[in-house]
Amino acid sequence: MTIQGKTALVTGGSRGIGRAVCLRLAAMGVVVGINYVGNREAAEETLATIKDLGGSGFLCQFDVADASGVQESFKQIGAEHGVVEILVNNAGITRDGLMARMKEDDWDKVLDTNLKGAFLCSKAAMRAMMKNRWGRIINISSVIGFLGNAGQVNYASAKAGLVGLTKSMARELAPRSVTVNCVAPGYIVTDMTSGLGEDIQQAIKAQIPLGTLGTPEDVAAAVAFLAGEDAAYMTGQTLHVNGGMYMGN
Ligand code: NDP
Question: What is the DSSP letter of 242?
Fold first, then answer.
């Protein structure tokens, strides 16, 4: 059995890791919903690339942190493209700063997008998955959720929270053959990390046994594995894609 012809939704699919996941799933014959919040141009470019490569997909704009927007969008996707069978909770932001100076709003924004967004989208998708007795939910965490990082208490908390969300959902949905897993990337070359100075990048590379930052495609490969039938007996797990930077569980 393959996942060809199934419908996926990738939150934050317009750029970076999400874009690579969209391309990879489309190459497996999945119909890919590309979610974005503001950058329509990037989302359109991702869709055009999918179509150039012979795949199919569609755009869906909504803010993952907006409960009613999420509900409406999933309803619309179900009506127009079929229910979401593979959900990749990838949308994420950073608002860095040392705890002593971090504003409450920076905490709220990061938790709302990175953690609550995954809760809202999963909630919107899970009923149909349970009814169909098949589904895949893949949450994009981060090595920072496992190691912590000075200047990122908000981001580390959200990313660690995703691991707890994953394990609890995995237990709840397993009786209906819906699997829920995490992918925890290390440092990946995207817009999110492009602002890091050369000196910081060198310091990061020194902590990575494989010696380089990763690519969005490295992460997409792990997501594709978890979405496919080969991972049918895996749930509640985290795949670490970090060049060896963190080797724990
Ligand atoms: P980018 O900054 O390159 O892209 C972020 C994506 O998220 C964009 O598609 C953006 O949409 C979307 N997005 C942001 N906020 C919202 C929202 N409220 N609702 C819907 N979509 C939203 O990020 P990366 O590709 O680097 O990161 C993707 C995920 O991987 C994130 O969860 C990140 O935390 C995680 N990660 C990244 C690492 C890295 O080194 N890059 C390392 C570990 C984890 P739009 O284009 O419209 O702005």
Answer: S
pLDDT in tens, 63-82: 999 999 999 999 999 999 99
Strand partners, 137: 87, 180
Distance of CA 175 from the midpoint of ligand 1 (Å): 31
ipTM of the complex: 0.99
What pLDDT is recorded for position 249? 64
Task: Count how many residues are written for the chain.
Answer: 249
Task: Determine whether the annotation assigns residue 15 to a binding site.
Answer: yes
Q: Is 237 in contact with 182 (CB distance < 8 Å)?
A: yes
Active site residue 155: yes
**Nearest Cα to Cα of residue 210 among 225, 183, 188, 239:** 188
Q: Does the beta carbon of 41 sit less than 6 angstroms from any atom of ligand 1?
A: no
Model pTM?
A: 0.98
Burial class (CB in 10 A: 0-12, 13-18, 19+), 202: exposed
Nearest CA to ligand 1 atom 8: 12
Of 155, 187, 233, 246, the active-site residue reads 155
Q: May I ask the CATH architecture of the domain 7-240?
A: 3-Layer(aba) Sandwich (3.40)
Q: For 27-48, b where at least 16 C-beta lie within 10 A, e where not — what string?
A: ebebbbbbbbbeeeebbeebbe
Q: Which residue ranges make up each domain of the chain?
A: 7-240
Q: How large is the average pLDDT for residues 204-217? A: 97
Ligand 1 center from residue 43 Cα (angstroms): 12
